[in-house]
Amino acid sequence: MKKFATIAVAFGLLSAILAGCSGGSGSATATPTATESSQSLGEITVISREEGSGTRGAFIELFGVEEKDANGNKVDHTTEEALIANKTDVVITQVAASKSAIGYISLGSLNDTVKALKVDGVDATAENVSNGTYSIARPFNIATKGTPSEVAQDFIDFILSADGQRIVSDNNYIPVDANAATYAGTKPNGKIVVAGSSSVSPLMEKLQEAYLALNPNATIEIQTSDSTTGMQSTMSGICDIGMASRELKDSELAELTPIVIAKDGIAMIVNKENSLDNISSETVKEIYTGVITDWADVA
Questions:
Q1: Distance CA 227, CA 143 (A)
Q2: Kindly report the CA angle at 186 between 185 and 189, in degrees rounded to 5?
Q3: Which residue positions does the secretion signal occupy (predicted)?
Q4: Do the strands 174-175 and 257-270 form a parallel or antiparallel pair, or are they unpaired?
Q5: E-strand spans in 94-189?
Q6: pLDDT digits (tens, 9 = 90+) for 144-163
């Protein structure tokens, strides 16, 4: 009897499937699509960076997620429901793995595993950052304390030369000097440690590779963490050059000398199966402050 019941259930399921597929007159047949309507994705999975991240600092300032309280103190209102990622590539991985996720990353780190949204109708591109139409952008800074060593100064000279700025441009960042002179270094010996922002690190690795091809006498170690750690490491003498993907704070400027090496946009990213293409600045703020929690409420 149990065997008969099992067969009957299986037959019933098969009949239902066939009926759904046949789509008699008047019936509608759903057509699969490559992307899902954002409204059908349910609760939004908010991905943010850790405290101390220069990308987070720039993001919360640019989108108004950070606001001053009654005493004039800056308060970060990022929702407590946000999942925290401690590196740029972790944000990308999390968004690529979740249909309901949204995150923000360095524009130069964008790849084809996720989708960048237009913000206020403007595409997130290096060209639009350069011409000012995409305003969600921040500087890439390096910083030193006191007089840099000979090899550290030579590496900085390379970064700011035409050769270094070409690498900046080739990697989808915006150079700070399109008319820089060609690098003419002295190939000094020595080792330097560069530490800080995980947003600046991918560009710094490209600059490191190109510089060492010209000066094999040097050794450069890159330690990736976040902007605040990079500045603290520079102030304490742990590293020779710090990296920050934001403006330096007053307390940092009191001890360090900053140098802008590039400009970078911040891209808002979603899963590739999300049908959304454009988002307003106000909606981004409302998502990251917890006012909007479901994709159905995203216009």
A1: 11
A2: 120
A3: 1-30
A4: antiparallel
A5: 101-106, 115-116, 118-119, 137-144, 174-175
A6: 999 999 999 999 999 999 99
Collapsed DSSP state (helix, strand, coil) of residue 173: coil
- Residue of 236, 129, 251, 130 lying closest to 193 (CA atoms): 236
Percent helix / strand / coil, the chain, rounded to 5: 35, 25, 40
Tokens of 117: 């949204």
Residue 15 CA, chain-centre distance (Å), reads 49
Using CA atoms, how far apart are residues 221 and 236, in angstroms rounded to an integer?
17
Distance CA 231, CA 212 (A): 24
Domains observed in the chain: 38-138+267-297 (3.40.190.10), 139-264 (3.10.105.10)
User: How many angstroms separate the Cα of 162 from the Cα of each of 21, 165, 170, 183, 245?
Assistant: 63, 5, 12, 7, 21
The H or E element that residue 222 is part of is: strand 218-225
pLDDT tier at 97, thresholds 50, 70, 90: very high
Q: Which amino acid is at 63?
A: F
Question: pLDDT tens digit string along 46-79?
Answer: 999 999 999 999 999 999 999 988 988 899 999 9
Residues 6+ apart with CB under 8 A from 19: none
For residue 97, the Cα-to-chain-centroid distance in whole angstroms is 16
Comparing 3-17, 47-61, 146-160, 165-179, the range with the smallest average pLDDT is 3-17
Give Dmax (Cα) for the chain: 90
